Amino acid sequence: MLESLINPKRAEKGPWKMFFVGILYASLSLLLVKVFFTGDLVLIKYSGLIVVLFCVMFSLPFMYYIIKQEEREDEYIGGGIRRVWSIHKDAMLALIWLFIGFVVAFSFWFLILQDSNLLNAQIETYCSINSPGRVSQCVEQYSTGGFISPTGNATAMARFASILENNIYVMIFTLLFSLIFGAGAIFILAWNATVIASAVGVFTNFNLSEIPLGLLRYMIHGLPEITTYFLAALAGGILGTGLIRNGVRSKRFLHVIENAIILLFAAVLILIIAGLMEVYLTPIFFQ
Prior knowledge:
This protein is an all-alpha fold. The chain has one domain (11-285). Helices cover 78% and strands 0% of the residues. The protein is built from eleven helices and no strands. The radius of gyration is 19 Å and the shape is globular.
């Protein structure tokens, strides 16, 4: 029913509207899992993934429409970053607003419900990144609140290299995932939104009044970073759709390839900037 109530075509023409759509989808995903699955002794172990699954299911109609629409425009327009941006601007802004809505809603309900089981997989992911030597202790402390500071004595440059390597790996995975199934990249975007929400919960010690500060802490570098995944998702999606619609030798497909390369080049540049921001800028404001 939701896919009938929310028209993807109208949403793309008013990208900011997707913020509220993201809030709706994320809220429903978390609340449905809370109501129907947390009482099940088996399924509760996988509740973090089930939350993402629901969010993906809600978002698929919109993602499918976006990929098909952008590929059609790419068939006729090619060359230049400005021209590529002009045809993909509305889609990119719509995806960014959707993601921000995800993060805000997941963070809000996670702190309201005070149930660490809802994002248990995301908690473990957060701990594996920030406390790789003591994941179990980190998870236990997280469940009772308390901020876990990153451990280790790595230099800033070493941290930057590690972050960049991991983010490029995720970007490549997003590209391949969207190439195989254009709308499938929404899984990675929804997953990242829930991981950020779990990190916000840790950073704020489950204090609802500090949500804006927690969101700022991770969105300073997180928003540019997630933008690169949107670019990769669009590139993979339009390549896959363009190949099926036009074939390898078509002139229209050459336009699609050219624009996809430009999108990926921009994604790598933004990813480098986001990594530098995470290592050198964010710690200036948040220790």
